[in-house]
Amino acid sequence: MMAKSAIKDSIQQDQINFLKEGKKEDSSILRFALSFINKEEKDKQIELSDSEVVAVIKSLIKRNKDSYDQFTSANRPELAEKEKKEMDLLQSYLPEVMNENETEEIVKSTIDKLGISSMKEMGKAMGEIKKNHADTIDLSLVSQLIKKHLS
Predict the structure, then answer these.
(1) How far apart are alpha carbons 43 and 108 in whole angstroms?
(2) 141 class by beta-carbon count within 10 Å (0-12 exposed, 13-18 middle, 19+ buried)
(3) Domain-embedded: residue 1
């Protein structure tokens, strides 16, 4: 049995606290996120790890981002603002993402460690980095940096 997710516990606790403090909107955002986490657990019949909870939160943020972009281009600032608030609150539960310099170090050392010399092997480097740093690294930045180093 895997360890319980500290992130999920934190969301549950905050959701209750927001409710007690009368922050209905924040509480309902977290309740919504928890419903997705719980559904994922029910579907997989396991307790999600922090890493899996992070994946669920990231997918929710991506949904908010898509909605935010649509509302912004449709000139609906009040709806866009609501999506932005949800994204910001959910983002606060994600682990800190590495900055560009830290990411570059990891990309360089992974390329060296695996002895990669051509773009054909980019997938190898991506896989290794994803395996070790998926929660704390921006994979689109990793992709750009690998291309920069191998070209």
Answers:
(1) 38
(2) middle
(3) no
pLDDT tens for 83-134 read: 999 999 999 999 888 999 999 999 999 999 999 999 999 999 999 999 889 8
107 lies in which domain range?
Answer: 100-150
Q: pLDDT by residue (tens digit) across 54-76?
A: 999 999 999 999 999 999 999 99
| Number of domains forming the structure of the chain | 2
CA separation, residue 100 to residues 62, 124, 133, 142 (Å): 21, 20, 14, 9
Q: Report whether pLDDT(3) > 50.
A: yes
Buried b (16+ CB within 10 A) or exposed e, 110-140: bbeeeebeeeeebeebbebbeeebebebeee
Q: Are 76 and 107 in a shared domain? A: no
Dist CA 151 CA 145 (whole Å): 10
How far apart are the C-alpha atoms of 61 and 143, rounded to whole Å?
A: 21
The answer to whether position 38 is within a domain reads yes
Tell which of 91, 115, 130 closes a domain.
91
